[in-house]
């Protein structure tokens, strides 16, 4: 195994010159989207994205997963405006191409070639534009965050994704303006920017210097739909868990959370009572972490269900994509590659 400059652990076979073609399986529609990367991906790539975890890539099926319409619009806008080039910046630089780094090709094996490329691209951010090093990284992050704060006023999503990829903070509180980027996007009615910021962790309930939230800003500026969408975002975690557990979502127009039928019918076993006691004893931070774990698990199960449903209807199920979401194991995949010839 050769390690190339940058220490991204590239397989030697990746060090061949090539043209800038798509990495995805030929003749296949990209069925999936990576929401936080703003790219559309095929089944094969999706299997690798999922093995990296939601903190690296949040995937949803373009047709079979439920989408808030403006979130889907945000992803399509990024994808069609070339967000992919953010993650392949240095590969587009002629000097780098001469050094021999290249993308994986559609006909390359998923393991190890495509999976290593995808990991280098999204996990190690090996090809993202690197800023000149400064002594104080905090200053750089602050500058980037200030740029983000003003850019979300415009409709240019790629610029904002680029800033976020470089380390701009979605929840940055601008010390002079007294607001976060989401306040700015909400006031300007930039719905897609708001979607992007929320994907990157912006809090729709964050107070400005006077205690007003981005939701308040959207309402006051007359962007009623955006305000409602931001409320939905704020309760995304609990709503999704509630929906997973009982197939219903709380109605945020008539108060939050409450699902009376469920509360009334709770007949706790001794085991459940003990578990409830344990949960109540958790600190807020631990409870948040637990909730995120459960959320990730719900997301995983829902995507698994979509995966199975779509693969069953596909005539293109291959040996390679039949075991999609196992962590990458080079020995295992070497055997599989032999089977595939
Ligand atoms: Zn692909």
Outline:
By secondary structure, the protein is mainly alpha-helical. It is 52% helix and 3% strand.
Q: What would you note in describing this structure?
A:
The protein is an all-alpha fold and 341 residues long. It has 2 domains: 12-129 and 306-332, Orthogonal Bundle (Annexin V, domain 1); 137-234, Serine Threonine Protein Phosphatase 5, Tetratricopeptide repeat (Alpha Horseshoe), CATH 1.25.40. 52% of the residues lie in helices and 3% in strands. It has 17 helices and 3 strands. It has helices spanning 43-52, 69-80, 84-87, 94-98, 110-123, 137-151, 157-165, 181-188, 191-199, 214-220, 224-234, 236-246, 260-265, 270-281, 284-312, 319-322, 330-340; strands at residues 32-34, 39-41, 59-61. Strands 2-1-3 form a 3-stranded antiparallel sheet. β1 and β2 form a beta hairpin. The radius of gyration is 22 Å and the shape is globular. The model is unreliable at 1-21 and 314-341 (pLDDT under 50).
């Amino acid at each position: 195994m050769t390690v190339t400059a940058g220490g991204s652990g590239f397989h030697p076979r990746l060090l061949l010159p090539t043209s800038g073609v798509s990495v995805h399986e030929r003749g296949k529609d990209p069925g999936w989207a990576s929401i936080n990367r703003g790219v559309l991906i095929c089944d094969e790539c999706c299997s690798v994205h999922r093995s990296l975890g939601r903190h690296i890539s949040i995937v949803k099926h373009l047709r079979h997963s439920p989408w808030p319409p403006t979130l889907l619009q945000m992803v399509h806008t990024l994808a069609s405006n070339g967000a992919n080039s953010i993650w392949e910046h240095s590969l587009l630089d002629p000097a780098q191409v001469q050094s021999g780094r290249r993308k994986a090709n559609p006909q390359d094996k998923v393991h190890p070639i495509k999976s290593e490329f995808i990991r280098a691209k999204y996990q190690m951010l090996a090809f993202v534009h690197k800023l000149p090093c400064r002594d104080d990284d905090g200053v750089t992050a602050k500058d980037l965050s200030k740029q983000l704060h003003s850019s979300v006023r415009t409709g240019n999503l790629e610029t904002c994704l680029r800033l976020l990829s470089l380390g701009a903070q979605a929840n940055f509180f601008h010390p002079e303006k007294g607001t976060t980027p989401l306040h700015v996007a909400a006031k300007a009615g930039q719905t897609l920017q708001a979607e992007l910021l929320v994907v990157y962790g912006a809090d729709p309930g964050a107070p400005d210097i006077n205690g007003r939230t981005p939701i308040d800003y959207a309402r006051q500026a007359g962007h009623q739909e955006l305000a409602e969408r931001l409320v939905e975002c704020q309760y995304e975690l609990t709503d999704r868990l509630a929906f997973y557990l009982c197939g219903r979502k709380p109605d945020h127009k008539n108060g939050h959370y409450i699902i009376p039928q469920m509360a009334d019918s709770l007949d706790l076993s001794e085991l459940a009572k003990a578990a409830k006691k344990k949960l109540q004893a958790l600190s807020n931070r631990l409870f948040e972490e637990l909730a995120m774990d459960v959320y990730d698990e719900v997301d995983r199960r829902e995507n698994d269900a979509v995966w199975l449903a779509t693969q069953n209807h596909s005539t293109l199920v291959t040996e390679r994509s039949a075991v999609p979401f196992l962590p990458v194991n080079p020995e295992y995949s070497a055997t599989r590659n032999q089977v595939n010839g």
